[in-house]
Amino acid sequence: MDSNITKQAMNEIETRHTEIIKLENSIRELHDMFVDMAMLVESQGELVNNIEKNVMSSVDYVERAKEETKKAVSLKGKSRRKMLFIGICLAVTLAILLISLAATLS
């Protein structure tokens, strides 16, 4: 009877030991998962920071583009006026040349 109790106690101890080993393995796996999650969060944080930096840069580019567009519209109007002025000057010069040429030929 003593040997039965001893065997039963031994079986319980072995079962507990096996369960403790399984628990240790589960805790190790859980620890590894948390380490992996921490690494992912860190790498995602870098990506988020990079995205944030790019968004801030794009805001600056948009502001500069607005200013440049206004400047381009202004220069376009000035360019038209200058081209019109040059055309009038050429027409007047051509008219003067034609009149002087006609006067010298007649």
Automatic annotation (TrEMBL):
A GO cellular component entry from the record: SNARE complex
GO biological process, one term: exocytosis
SMART domains assigned: t_SNARE
GO molecular function per UniProt: SNAP receptor activity; SNARE binding
Topology with respect to the bilayer: Peripheral membrane protein; Single-pass type IV membrane protein
Pfam families hit by this protein: SNARE
Subcellular locations according to the entry: Endomembrane system; Membrane
Keywords: Coiled coil, Membrane, Transmembrane, Transmembrane helix, Transport
Origin: domain of life: Eukaryota
Transmembrane segments: 84-105
InterPro entries the record matches: Syntaxin, Syntaxin/epimorphin_CS, T_SNARE_dom
Main location class: membrane
Domain (T-SNARE coiled-coil homology) ranges: 10-72
UniProt similarity note: Belongs to the syntaxin family.
PANTHER family per UniProt: PROTEIN SSO1-RELATED, SYNTAXIN
Name of the protein this chain belongs to: Syntaxin-1A-like isoform X2
Species of origin: Acipenser oxyrinchus oxyrinchus
Gene: STX1A
